[in-house]
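Quick one: structure for this chain?
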Amino acid sequence: MVEGLSIMRVARVFLWLCVGLLAVGCSGNSTSPSALASTATVSNDVLSGTVPAPVGGVLQSAFNMFTVGQGGGSVSVTLTSAIETINAGALLPTVTMGLAVGNASGSTCTPIANTFTTAQAGSTPQLTGTLGANGTYCVIVSDVTTQLGPVAYSVVVSHP
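Got it. Here's what it folds into:
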């Protein structure tokens, strides 16, 4: 019984020593987990172009390329302006356009699955998601309403 008691005392001392070391290790000027989080730099690319009016009844689109760095990350697309020029130069600023993110290769842009939405110009991102790798991507702006004239657009793409 005496031997069992001394083993228990050693175990308690060891346990208290471990607790004490943990307390010392967790106090003081340690860096918090939020300070250790990735500090990816976010770029805001302002891209613009024109989506032509339908040709022979075929809806048109245009795209702009952007480069994602830092191993990928969160991306948001905001259609900030979409103005259609119609009859005799009249401007229609409320046109609805299609937005998508795609993979760029040379002079082509292939939409990524599940990245399409329709939107009118605004100040809040209409399309958000995560791109898993750095590389060259593209944002596609397309006619979804059989517009009557060309649509001048501007998008902001926020990305790492």
